[in-house]
């Protein structure tokens, strides 16, 4: 029973497959170790990025409206001798504000 060479994945380019086929066994083992380490690194980075995105969602203040970005800060504006809280954030060169509520809810 003759030993057959492995079949490369269909999505590898012919140029890449030919380059691998021309490599020595030692070189192929180096490539395999590097490819395995690179795959582990990328999986870890993707997992950390996903966890970070989940943390951002978990850290979102309860009173922050959905249409207000996390980077928004609360500012106080005085209008007709009354003080009000506003969410405020920058979008490019524009500062955007969204009403939050009165500073003194009893007033």
Automatic annotation (TrEMBL):
Bias (Acidic residues) ranges: 51-66
Species the sequence originates in: Natrialba swarupiae
Stored Pfam families: DUF6788 (PF20586)
Annotated protein name in UniProt: DUF6788 domain-containing protein
Domain DUF6788 residues, every copy: 44-106
Renumbered residue ranges of the record's region Disordered: 46-69
Superkingdom as given in the UniProt entry: Archaea
